[in-house]
Amino acid sequence: MNPTGSPLRHLLAATLLLLFAGSLTPLRAADEIGSTQVAPWKDNRTAAFLLMFDDGWPGQLMVAIPELQKRDLTATFYMVPLKGEYKVHADKWAEAIKGGNIIYGNHTMTHQGVRDYEHAQTEIVECTRIIREELQPIPGKPNRLVSFAKPGVPKGKWTLPKEDYERVLAEDNMIKRPTFRDHGAVYHLQELNEMTALADEAIATQGTEYLILHGVERIGSKWQDFWALKQEIFLPLLDYLAEKQATNELWVTDHISWHQYKTEREAASISVLQADEESIELELSASVDPVLYDYPLTLITQVPNAWTECRIIQGEVISQATPSDGKLTYDAFPNGPAVQILPITR
């Protein structure tokens, strides 16, 4: 006798299936009103790209920052507060942030290496303190995440044990940036097409790529930065990235914003509290520390086709957005108040 043909077995299987099914929350179809997903990248862009500048060379102040701000491109600049070039222009670095598009990162105090845990307090932790308290203070965020870039130093100058290295970063809310390997302008990549290929790769994979730069050419200056990238390459590179950003293909951002978004996205969950033709209400949560991870995520919600303009309310934050093909794209903060979406009637 075939045991699978037993009436008793069929009855038992059917009973278990009903019990199991009754314990599940029904899934929402992708086109059902209220169905919501987190966009892969900010503003539902195709990919992310990071520009990172090391050492605080004068060409960064005089050329890179104005050109970035002109194109609305954001980058991370890794500071070395006791380095001669930085000390000469310290006041200008503090002033430069007023134009936006700049986030400062930690590249140690001297760029000369770290011996041990105790030395790390003055060489690494002090640099972060200067960034948070003096160079780029942000009200209400005294212990915010700061990007850390390990400097390249001669052999034997970095003897900080790995476990102490990790401990120092964790204790002071620092995040290691991607490695310099194969991503250094001038050192690894010399031609414009090699650098734009990184952006193309990010778009093709819908992932992330990055470029690490040092100096930028100062035309007419007797002295040039270390590994100065010529303007005939640098400016077209920025134009290319700005074009890709304008077409929503790239999110050109700083390392910490990228890290926060990716971390929150991977830990996010959405609960639809209510969804009908009159309003939608949902909760966005993420299993992360809300003090450190407070970057808004981009959500995409299915709304009724009749809604031509929407108001999004999350606590005291109110915004407005226009749906496209019944899909509304907007920002919301994880672990914040419930999000309410309402149609705007004329």
Describe, in plain words, how this protein is organized in 3D.
The radius of gyration is 25 Å and the shape is globular. The protein has 2 domains: 92 residues, Immunoglobulin-like (Sandwich); 202 residues, Glycoside hydrolase/deacetylase (TIM Barrel, Alpha-Beta Barrel). Strand 12 and strand 13 form a beta hairpin. By secondary structure, it is of the alpha/beta class. Helices cover 33% and strands 23% of the residues. Helix 2 packs parallel to helix 8, helix 5 runs parallel beside helix 6 and helix 7 packs parallel to helix 8. The strands form 4 sheets. Strands 2, 3, 4, 7 and 8 form a 5-stranded parallel β-sheet that branches. A 5-stranded antiparallel β-sheet has the order 9-10-15-12-13. It has a 3-stranded antiparallel β-sheet with strand order 1-11-14.
Entry keywords:
single chain, 346 residues, alpha/beta, Immunoglobulin-like, TIM Barrel, 5-stranded antiparallel β-sheet, 9 helices, 15 strands, 23% strand, disordered N terminus
